[in-house]
Design a protein that fits this description.
- The protein is of the alpha/beta class.
- Helix content is about 35%, strand content about 30%.
- It is built from 9 helices and 11 strands.
- The chain has a 6-stranded mixed beta sheet, with helices on both faces.
- The longest helix has 16 residues.
- Bound molecules: 1-O-pyrophosphono-5-O-phosphono-alpha-D-ribofuranose.
- The site of 1-O-pyrophosphono-5-O-phosphono-alpha-D-ribofuranose (PRP) has 12 residues, from strand 9 and helix 7.
Length: about 210
């Protein structure tokens, strides 16, 4: 039995499509249920988990495999094996600030207030460029922190760029690109080597369109 941690929401649904095409699972999770565990066959169990918690379930070995954004893996410095890039949920981690703010101006400050859902990434980034930062941890609508002036800038993911644009903000610096990754618990990988390698190969071929 392989237990797969699937993030709730659109990313999970897209990953589910890939797993069906790859033959890893044979049927979709029922949409009308509030259940969080689904035994889809004798060999595959799905856990439906909040995206930020997927890596934790995989790290702990409660799930053997999971689908999780690179942004979340970097933030939590997760101790999991990355098996393959699912090329889903593409976004960039950026520093953004009010329109007209130049990188030279912002990064010449000694101290910055930073609104973010990614406190570890933000702290590390500013520390690396020798700027002292006060990290204001937020859970959503991060752009508002910079718009209202509660923070000097934000560190957040950008996908279409619409949220920044509609709120009069712009990208000051790009940190890294992120997509969803298929990850694996280290012990599970060696214990279920054959099954996990077959699964990774089938998913990899599906993603590549082969
Ligand atoms: C994310 C992110 C940005 C937005 C970027 O938030 O934190 O706010 O999406 O997307 P865009 O570049 O396509 O506009 P999410 O939609 O997850 O909502 P949240 O603010 O509640 O976290």
């Amino acid at each position: 039995m392989i237990t797969i941690a699937l993030p709730k929401g659109r990313l999970g649904e897209e990953a589910e499509e890939i797993m069906i095409k790859a033959g890893v699972i044979r049927k979709k999770i029922p949409q009308d249920s509030r259940k969080l565990i689904f035994d889809l066959s004798d060999t595959v169990r799905i856990l439906l988990i909040r995206a930020q918690d997927v890596a934790t379930y995989v790290e702990m070995g409660t799930a053997d495999i999971g689908i999780v954004g690179k942004d979340v893996l970097v933030e939590h410095n997760s101790e999991v094996l990355e098996l393959t890039d699912l090329k889903l949920g593409y976004c960039k981690m950026v520093v953004a600030a009010k329109k007209g703010t130049t990188k030279e101006n912002l990064f010449s400050m000694d101290f910055l207030k930073v609104g973010t859902k990614y406190p570890s990434i933000a702290k590390k980034f500013f520390s690396n460029i020798s700027i002292q930062s006060e990290i204001i941890k937020l859970y959503g609508s991060v752009e508002l922190a910079a718009v209202t002036g509660m923070s000097d800038c934000i560190v957040d993911i950008v996908s279409t760029g619409a949220t920044l644009k509609d709120n009069g903000l712009e990208v000051v610096e790009e940190l890294f690109e992120s997509t969803a990754r298929l990850v694996c618990n280290r012990s599970s990988f060696y214990r279920e080597l054959e099954a996990i390698e077959a699964m990774t190969s089938a998913i990899g071929k599906t993603v590549a369109g082969a």
